[in-house]
Write a structure and sequence with these properties.
Blueprint (H helix, E strand, L loop, with lengths): L1 H14 L10 E3 L10 H9 L1 H8 L5 E3 L6 H10 L5 E3 L1 H11 L5 E8 L4 E5 L14 E4 L6 H14 L11 E3 L2 H10 L4 E6 L3 H5 L5 E6 H5 L6 E6 H6 L1 H20 L1 H11 L7 H8 L13 H10 L10 H4 L11
Parallel strand pairs: 1-2, 6-7, 6-8
Antiparallel strand pairs: 3-10, 4-10, 5-8, 5-9
Helix pairs in contact: 2-11, 2-12, 3-11, 11-12, 12-13
Length: 334
């Protein structure tokens, strides 16, 4: 009899609406790869913004910010439940969205930043992307699936057609930004170009032998989302108050960067170890018109449509609602 009652109670709990259950009390949000693209996350951590908005919503939550590696590791962490929100560039997000569309349904809560990546090259060796040849190599964060790899595939499709969409892939090599910076500025090797993000690209351009020969906004036709934040539909449905607090915190962190760029630069400097960079140098980059912090997605659908066209995605989103949770903060994006 006791066993039967226990089974009935368990069934009732399982059948209860998700929203009626207690929301999580601890959030795990990896900090991402670092740098300008992830600055709002560091602002949220520094100023405990999520905790404040969660408390306003009547939920007490603590937030941990682990450093657990690159996009592949973070994707696994999200799917295993060891991370609740992750951040990455559009190509990495779209691959995960495509992979989980039929099950846990990963979607983005909003964009984090819109910052162009720039192809810097030693002009004596490479004056245009189309001239790369032989044993010359261009450093990217990840071959084939990173933002710059997709950008070069887009360029190839427009200029050379579908048959040569991957023509630049053999000339790419995976390197972390600091290593690529050293390789490019030291010269003498086969690294003749580097698709750099801020602040590494700006540092490279201080070398008179290096110039920007292309940037991602050129190919995309305008300002483009650089980093975005996502979670599973299952988690969002089970934790509406916490989810709302995270989204509000993201938007507030972006606003705070604009309100006091010197203070934001100091947070960024601390996140980078406080060495090798000057706060004024970072403020100058924050003041660049192309450095934007907004939850509204820009050109994410363009990435998705292209990746579906070349076979990198099985599914093609019908619109922004397929990729993002419904919220005013993402309305009007593309």
């Amino acid at each position: 009899m006791k066993i039967a009652k226990a089974l009935i109670a368990a069934a009732v709990i399982a059948a209860a609406p998700v929203a009626a259950r207690a929301e999580v009390s601890e959030l795990k949000i990896p900090l991402g790869a670092g740098g300008f693209g992830f600055l709002p996350l560091h602002m949220m951590q520094k100023h405990r913004i999520i905790e404040k908005f969660a408390e306003e919503a009547g939920v007490k939550v603590t937030v941990s910010w682990p450093n657990i590696g690159g996009p592949a590791v973070m994707n696994d962490a999200l799917l295993s439940g060891s991370a609740h929100y992750i951040s990455a560039g559009p190509p990495s997000f779209l691959i995960l969205w495509d992979r989980t569309k039929a099950n846990v349904g990963v979607k983005s809560i909003g964009a984090i930043s819109s910052i162009p990546m720039q192809l810097n090259a030693t002009v004596a060796q490479l004056k245009a992307l189309d001239e790369v040849s032989g044993g010359q190599k261009i450093a990217v964060t990840s071959v084939k699936v990173s933002i710059p790899s997709i950008i070069m595939q887009m360029h190839a499709l427009k200029k050379y057609g579908r048959e040569q969409v991957f023509r630049f892939d053999p000339f790419t090599v995976t390197m972390a930004h600091p290593d690529a910076l050293i390789a490019l500025t030291s010269g003498g090797g086969n690294i003749v170009g580097h698709w750099a993000s801020a602040p590494f690209g700006q540092r490279e351009l201080k070398d008179p032998a290096i110039r920007t020969i292309m940037n991602s906004n050129d190919v995309m036709g305008g300002s483009t989302t650089f980093t975005m934040m996502s979670t599973t539909s299952r988690f969002q449905a089970a934790n509406p108050k916490v989810h709302g607090a995270v989204l509000k915190a993201l938007k507030r962190a972006q606003e705070m960067i604009g309100e006091d760029k010197a203070a934001a630069a100091q947070v960024l400097l601390e996140s980078m170890g406080g060495k090798g960079w000057d706060a004024g140098e970072l403020v100058a980059i924050l003041n660049e018109p192309s450095t934007k912090y907004t939850t509204r997605p820009e050109n994410v659908l363009a990435y998705a449509n292209f990746m579906h066209e070349i076979g990198s995605l099985k599914n093609k989103p019908a619109g922004l609602a397929d990729l993002f949770f419904d919220a005013p903060e993402v309305a009007g994006g593309n």
